[in-house]
C-alpha cells in the first residue's frame, strides 16, 4: 500500500497556518486594546483619531508615544502653553475637532479660561508664534532665519531655543494631524461633547474600562462605524486581565488621583457654558490674516523661488541630529514615526508609497535630485494626486475632499494608510523648513 505523505500533512499544515494567522490577529487586537486602555486611563476617552489609526497598531503605538511626549512629558514649555499652541495650529486649518480637543485639555491642565476668548487674550509670548504658525501651515518654504531671530530676540518676551524647538514640533505635528482629520472625514462628523471640566462626558468615568462598563457616549465611537468601546477593547486578553495590569501600576494610580484633584479644582470655576461653547465654535478668534493660504507655483517660477533640495538639508543627515540635541529624544520618536508609516504591511507597493511621499514634498517645494518624478505620473492617477494635494496643502478648503475613484476597491485600512503617509510626509516637510531656518540662525 502506498501512503501519500502530502495528503496526510496538508490538513495539519493548513490547520497550523490558520492557528498562526489567528495568533497574529489576536496579538494585534491585544496590542490595540492595551493602547486604547492606556488612552482611557490617561485621557478618559479614546479619541476618534486613535480609533481610525487602530487598523495599523504598529504605527498607532509610535504616534501615541510621540504625541504623549510632546504634550505631557518633561519639556521646556508648561503644559497649558503646549495645548494652546496646538489650538493655534489647528485653528489655521479650521479644524473644530482638534481645537475642541485641545481646549478641553488646556482647561484640564490648569490653563486660564480667558485665553480661550481669542489670540488677543493670550500672553504676548504666545502671540509672537502667530506668524511662524501661519507660514508653516500654508507656505512653509517662506520660513526664514529672520523669523527665528524675531522669536529669540524679542526682549522680555523672547523665546529660548529649546522652547522654540518644542513649539515648532507641536505646530508641525498639529498641522499634519489636521490633514489626517480632514482626510479621514473625522471633523465633519464631530459633535462637541457637553460641558465637562476635564474634556470627557460628565457621565463617563475614566476608570469605567477597568470595570467593564460599556456605556460609552456615541460621540466617542468611530464616526463612520459608531463602534462601541466594548468592541474596541475586544481581544483574547479579557477585561479582568487588563484590570490587573492597570492595578499593578502605582504610577498610573497616582496619575489618576492627581487628575481627580485637578477635576475637582476646575469644577469650581464659574465660566458660563455659553461662553465656553462660543470659544469652541468660533475659530476665527485664534486666526490672524485669514486670507493667507497655500499658493500654487509653476515650474517656471522655480528660478524665482529657491527650491529646497534634500541633498543639501535632509532629515537623516541634518534635521534629526539638530532636533534631538535641542529637544532630548524627540528625534528618535519622530524618526520612528517616519519609519513605521513607510514600512507598514500594505497592498501598496514600496514604489507607490515613495511616489506619494515624494509628490507631497514636491507640492511643498522639496525636491530629491536622485528621484525620477516621471514615476509620480505613472503610479498616481490624476484623481489620487488631486486628493493627496488637497489633504496635504489645504485640507480645510473643501472640508471633505473628493475621494479617488480607485479607492472603491480598497479596504478602509489601506485608505487610512494613504492618509498616514500624507500626514507624515507633511510633518517631515514642515520640520525640515523650520530646522533649516534654525540652523541658519545658529551659524549666522
How would you characterize this protein structure?
The protein is 59% helix and 1% strand. The protein contains 19 helices and 2 strands. The chain is mainly α. The protein has a domain of 297 residues.
Question: Concise description?
Answer:
The chain is 59% helix and 1% strand.
Secondary-structure blueprint of this entry?
Elements: H1 5-43, H2 48-53, H3 57-72, H4 79-92, H5 96-108, H6 124-127, H7 130-138, H8 145-152, H9 161-183, H10 229-232, H11 239-247, H12 250-266, H13 273-281, E1 308-309, H14 315-326, H15 330-342, H16 350-363, E2 366-367, H17 374-379, H18 382-393, H19 412-443
Parallel strand pairs: 1-2
Helix pairs in contact: 1-3, 3-15, 4-5, 4-9, 8-19, 9-19, 14-15, 14-19, 15-19, 16-18, 16-19, 18-19
Q: What best-fitting shape do the alpha-carbon axes yield?
A: globular
Helix content: 55-70%
**Helical segment count:** 19
- Compute the separation of the termini in Å: 88 Å
Percentage beta strand: under 5%
Which strand order do you get reading across the main beta sheet? 1-2
Tally of DSSP β-strands: 2
Spans of at least 5 consecutive residues with low confidence: 1-26, 40-44, 193-243, 267-279
Question: How does the helix and strand content classify structurally?
Answer: mainly alpha
Most strands sheet: 2 strands, parallel
The helix/strand series, from N terminus to C terminus, equals: HHHHHHHHHHHHHEHHHEHHH
- Overall mean pLDDT score? 77
Query: C-alpha Rg, in Å?
Result: 23 Å
Family: Belongs to the sestrin family.
Protein name: Sestrin 4
Coiled coil: 239-266
GO molecular function: L-leucine binding; oxidoreductase activity, acting on peroxide as acceptor
Amino acid at each position: 500500500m502506498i501512503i501519500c505523505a502530502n495528503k496526510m500533512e496538508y490538513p495539519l499544515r493548513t490547520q497550523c497556518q490558520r492557528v498562526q494567522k489567528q495568533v497574529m490577529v489576536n496579538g494585534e487586537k491585544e496590542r490595540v486594546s492595551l493602547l486604547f486602555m492606556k488612552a482611557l486611563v490617561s485621557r478618559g476617552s479614546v479619541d476618534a483619531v486613535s480609533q481610525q489609526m487602530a487598523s495599523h497598531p504598529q504605527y498607532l503605538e509610535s504616534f501615541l508615544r510621540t504625541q504623549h511626549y510632546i504634550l505631557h512629558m518633561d519639556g521646556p514649555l508648561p503644559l497649558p502653553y503646549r495645548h494652546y499652541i496646538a489650538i493655534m495650529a489647528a485653528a489655521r486649518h479650521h479644524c473644530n475637532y482638534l481645537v475642541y480637543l485641545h481646549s478641553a485639555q488646556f482647561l484640564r491642565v490648569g490653563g486660564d479660561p480667558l485665553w480661550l476668548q481669542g489670540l488677543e487674550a493670550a500672553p504676548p509670548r504666545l502671540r509672537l508664534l502667530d506668524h511662524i504658525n501661519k507660514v508653516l501651515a500654508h507656505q512653509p518654504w517662506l520660513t526664514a532665519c529672520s523669523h527665528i531671530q524675531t522669536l529669540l530676540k524679542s526682549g522680555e518676551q523672547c523665546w529660548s531655543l529649546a522652547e522654540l524647538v518644542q513649539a515648532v514640533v507641536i505646530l508641525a505635528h498639529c498641522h499634519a494631524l489636521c490633514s489626517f482629520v480632514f482626510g479621514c472625514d473625522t471633523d465633519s462628523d464631530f459633535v462637541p461633547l457637553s460641558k465637562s471640566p476635564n474634556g470627557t462626558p460628565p457621565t463617563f468615568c475614566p476608570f469605567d474600562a477597568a470595570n467593564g462598563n460599556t456605556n460609552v457616549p456615541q460621540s466617542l465611537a468611530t464616526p463612520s462605524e459608531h463602534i462601541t468601546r466594548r468592541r474596541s477593547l475586544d481581544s483574547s486578553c479579557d477585561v479582568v486581565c487588563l484590570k490587573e495590569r492597570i492595578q499593578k501600576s502605582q504610577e498610573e494610580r497616582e496619575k489618576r488621583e492627581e487628575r481627580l484633584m485637578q477635576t475637582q479644582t476646575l469644577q469650581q470655576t464659574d465660566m458660563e457654558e455659553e461662553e465656553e461653547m462660543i470659544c469652541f465654535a468660533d475659530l476665527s478668534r485664534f486666526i490672524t490674516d485669514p486670507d493667507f493660504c497655500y499658493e500654487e507655483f509653476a515650474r517656471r517660477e522655480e528660478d524665482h523661488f529657491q527650491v529646497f533640495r534634500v541633498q543639501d538639508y535632509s532629515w537623516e543627515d541634518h534635521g534629526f541630529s539638530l532636533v534631538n540635541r535641542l529637544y532630548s529624544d524627540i528625534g528618535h520618536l519622530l524618526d520612528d514615526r517616519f519609519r513605521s508609516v513607510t514600512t507598514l504591511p500594505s497592498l501598496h507597493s514600496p514604489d507607490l508609497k515613495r511616489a506619494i511621499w515624494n509628490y507631497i514634498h514636491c507640492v511643498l517645494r522639496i525636491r530629491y535630485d536622485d528621484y525620477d518624478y516621471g514615476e509620480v505620473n505613472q503610479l498616481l492617477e490624476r484623481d489620487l494626486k488631486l486628493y493627496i494635494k488637497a489633504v496635504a496643502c489645504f485640507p480645510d478648503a473643501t472640508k471633505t475632499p473628493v475621494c479617488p475613484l480607485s479607492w472603491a476597491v480598497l479596504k478602509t485600512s489601506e485608505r487610512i494608510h494613504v492618509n498616514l503617509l500624507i500626514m507624515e510626509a507633511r510633518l517631515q516637510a514642515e520640520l525640515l523648513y523650520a530646522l533649516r531656518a534654525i540652523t541658519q540662525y545658529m551659524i549666522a
